[in-house]
Specification:
Elements: H1 3-13, H2 19-49, H3 55-76, H4 79-103
Length: 106
């Protein structure tokens, strides 16, 4: 193997372990989460004050939080991520049931 082949192989193997790239992605995910949460909270308040059901908005946010936490838990096996995921999934399931019941007028 010559020098260029070795460097190319190293780049391919290190594609997912690039710290700078992973840090940028993490920061982007944090800002996206903050923005999405803020917008969902804003819509939640608007719907609440207009006497509309907000459970569908809460269920979307709960699903996002829960599955984001599950992904983090499966990646690093930290108990705090599991608690985070469990809370988000509970929020999702409860609000989803309420949203479906409201849609079908149960």
């Amino acid at each position: 193997m010559d020098k260029d082949q070795i460097l190319e192989k190293a780049r391919k193997e290190n594609l997912f372990n690039d710290e700078a790239k992973n840090n940028k992605m993490k920061k982007g995910n944090e800002w996206g989460f903050i923005a999405a949460s803020s917008i969902l909270i804003l819509f939640g308040f608007i719907f609440y004050f207009k006497d509309k059901n907000v459970s569908h908005i809460v269920s979307i946010h709960g699903a996002y939080v829960g599955f984001k936490g599950l992904g983090k838990y499966f990646a690093n096996k930290e108990k705090s991520d599991l608690v985070y995921a469990f809370g988000g999934l509970l929020l999702f399931v409860g609000s989803f049931i309420l949203a479906v019941a409201d849609i079908w007028k149960l």
